[in-house]
Amino acid sequence: MNVSFVIVTYNSLEPLKICLQSLPTSLSNDINFEIIIVDNNSHDGSCQFIQENYPDIQLIKNEVNVGYTKAMNIGLKLAKGSYLVQLNPDVFVNPGTFQSLISWMNEHNDVGICIPKVLNQDGTFQKQCRRGFARPLEVFSYFLKLDRIFPNHKVIGNYVKTYLPEEEIAQVDAVSGSCMMIRKDVISDIGYLDERYFAYQEDTDFCFRANKAGWKVFYLPFVSVIHQGGRGGSRSEPYKAIFEWHRSYYLYYRKNLAKDYFFLVNWIMYLFIGIKLLFSLIGAWFSKEKIVGTKKP
Questions:
Q1: How many CB atoms lie within 10 A of CB 293?
Q2: Which of 85, 154, 188, 219 suits 111 as a labelling partner, its CA being 20 to 30 A distant?
Q3: Distance separating alpha carbons of residues 267 and 258, to the nearest angstrom
Q4: Contact at 8 Å (CB) between 217 and 114?
Q5: Angle at which helices 263-286 and 238-252 pack, to 10 degrees?
Q6: pLDDT in tens, 256-276
């Protein structure tokens, strides 16, 4: 098996339909692939639709919502491909995308993880697809929008790598799990996603561990996908999703970064996370459109 696509669904039927229609055109006929969908107890007809229209898809139905990370691991552990793709259900894959990624990865054996260029629905660049390790100065610069004032600064702009040209192939620290291709040898080397993250930050954590093990992570903009963003399960339970986003960053920081900083810096970070969580929940309460993270155009 050349490549396995693993998709986690939770009340995301409509975008999933578009995603599944687009996948076959992203590969040539000589590439063997499988699709594994792990459903987190959707109640929008997702499972029925898959069973009726895609009988070849391996469908795993969880009795409860176990979270994105645990569900993704269920699928990854079943996958037989040499390459494993974490794919969000609200991603449209442009023709030839994975054919090109596989060819490039076959020629670069030291690269363990890659992502194509990710676009918003309006065709603009989704800059969150390539990332730094979210260290304190990077985080404050991003949320205070300093990276917009100093986009070419390699520290201030490192949260989403604003100093890198959009069309330039680049080695990066981490990439988004919305469309992350993983060489199976990486999982054999470092293990699966850390299930302490219910959802969010599990992708950055995985890339952090891969980097420590000597694997390279690359952004490959010669092909692209379109990520709607926020059309997955987060809209079903927005307040829980907001809480889990902040909880996951707290866990990620304590696990991977806190040891590098003086305790006062760490406590400032924890206070910042708490304040941001409070304002995010208040903002969601008064907003008609519940958005987790950054709103995508």
A1: 14
A2: 154
A3: 9
A4: yes
A5: 170
A6: 999 999 999 999 999 999 999
CA atoms of 180 and 157, how far apart (whole Å): 22
Give CA angle at 126 (287, 159), nearest 5°.
90
Q: What is the DSSP letter of 223?
A: E
How far apart CA 172 and CA 5 sit, in angstroms, is 23
Bridge partners for 9 per DSSP? 39
Bridging pattern class, strands 58-61 and 174-175: unpaired
* Torsion angle defined by CA atoms of residues 202, 82, 180 and 116, in that order, rounded to the nearest 10 degrees: 160
Paired sense of beta strands 83-87 and 216-227, if any: unpaired
**CA neighbours closer than 13 Å in the CB half-sphere of residue 142:** 22
Amino acid at 231: R
**What tens digit of pLDDT does each residue of 52-83 get?**
999 999 999 999 999 999 999 999 999 999 99
Of the pLDDT bands very low, low, confident and very high (cuts 50, 70, 90), residue 238 is confident
The helix (H) or strand (E) run that includes residue 183 is strand 179-183
Distance CA 224, CA 126 (A): 11
CA distance 108 to 281: 43
CB 115 within 8 A of CB 169: no
Structure tokens at 287: 């907003």
pLDDT beyond 70 at 297: no
How far is the first Cα of the chain from the last one, in angstroms, to the nearest whole number? 36
Per residue in 88-120, pLDDT tens? Answer: 999 999 999 999 999 999 999 999 999 999 999
